[in-house]
Request: fold
Amino acid sequence: MNKKTLPKAMRPLSAEPSAVTERAAPVAPASPLAVEEPKAAPADADARRARAMKMVEYFSSYAGVAGLIPVPFLDLAAIGGLQFQMLRRLSHVYEVPFSNNRGKALIAAIAGTMIPASSGIGAASATKGVPLVGSVVSAFVVPTLAAGATYGIGMAFIKHFAGGGTLLDFNPPDYREFLKVEAAKRRAGGKAAASQTA
Reply:
């Protein structure tokens, strides 16, 4: 009787170790529920900072405009609201959880303790009630102080959030020196721009 050769699929594997081949484990069909969507790559730090800086410049400009509101203390409410919105937007840029109550408390703490110029905003706003002279003086002082204070607050939070901080671990006194340096840079930049236009 002639031996028939078995088809390739039915041939026994050789006992020799060199001839043993590994078989791939059967792959179970993927469940549609188990499929993970690809996660977005984290934003580039430079691009994130540039976006945050644009926001700070934007809100600083509008805080200066809010300082022109002629009604005493209504201007302060508008400036505080802009600073609060800036903080909210910066926290979104840096993907930091935001709490309304904590945000309001931090803006109040910063405005009162971190930036000496911001304490002058209240006094300058109060002078708006003085006829003629108060309106003229406060029209120059409040917008400048409001824009500077808002810029300083924004820069402090950019530094804090970029370093991995959150609203819960922000300590205003830690940024006092940083704000002095930023205020000096801003004044120097303003003087340089004024000398170029002259």
